[in-house]
Design goal:
Number of strands: 11
Distance between the termini: 25 Å
Order of helices and strands: HEEEEEEEEEEEH
Oligomer: single chain
Helix content: 10-25%
Number of helices: 2
Structural class: alpha+beta
Largest sheet: 11 strands, antiparallel
Length: 212
């Protein structure tokens, strides 16, 4: 009988673990990004007769997109531009910006958002681009939405090339896991040692009754 109970509880725990893994694979959510400001402007170096304008466009897709499970995302693309006289150099001096990721957990309809901030430095002209970057906020964050945990991590930053060339990009990874409360896995795990202790208690009680 003891062996039968032990096998039964182990089977329940295994089924609970399998169900939890299946739920984690089916976590469905939506993402959308917001970049602020949409244009990070640079200032002309020196005092040119016509200063013109230059900077970096931060383009984030504001439309929600449906996702399943963990995934890599492009938070924003970065394109440089210069509208000014040839030979004019423009500079970034700790020019701030932010990128916000908005997540909606579809199972619970709970919404959350995380924001990463940074600054641009360096120079830009019609035929050169030396744009460096530094984060001014932590590059990891976590959201607890419904019965799910979303861990968000900035994975890459590639600066833009010269105007009209390849864009740069900011990469983000979102890792999703199931976190139900109360958890079927926890309940199953608690049930097994409880059953073992109960069986031991019954055996001890019978033994004491015999000895008494």
């Amino acid at each position: 009988m003891k062996s039968t109970r032990l096998v039964w509880f182990c089977a329940c725990a295994g089924l609970a673990l399998s169900a939890s893994a299946a739920r984690a694979e089916r976590i469905v959510w939506t993402e959308q990004f917001l970049a602020t400001p949409s244009v990070v402007k640079a200032s002309p170096v020196g005092t040119p007769q016509w200063p013109g304008t230059a900077g970096v466009w931060l383009r984030a897709d504001p439309l929600p997109h449906r996702m399943t499970g963990s995934t890599d995302l492009v938070a924003a693309s970065l394109r440089s531009f210069v509208i000014g006289p040839p030979g004019t150099v423009y500079a970034f001096h700790n020019a701030p910006y932010s990128v916000t990721l908005m997540i909606r957990d579809l199972a619970s309809e709970v919404f959350g958002a995380v924001t990463f901030t940074g600054v641009l430095n360096g120079t830009l002209s019609r035929d050169s681009a030396h744009v460096s970057h530094a984060w001014t906020s932590p590059t990891t964050a976590a959201l607890h939405l419904g019965h799910h945990v979303y861990n968000v991590r900035v994975t890459s930053f590639a600066g833009p090339g010269v105007p009209g060339s390849r864009p740069g990009a900011i990469g983000v990874h979102v890792s999703v896991r199931d976190n139900p409360e109360p958890s079927a896995v926890v309940l199953a795990a608690l049930a097994l040692p409880a059953a073992v202790l109960a069986a031991r208690g019954r055996r001890r009680g019978r033994r004491e009754a015999v000895l008494g």
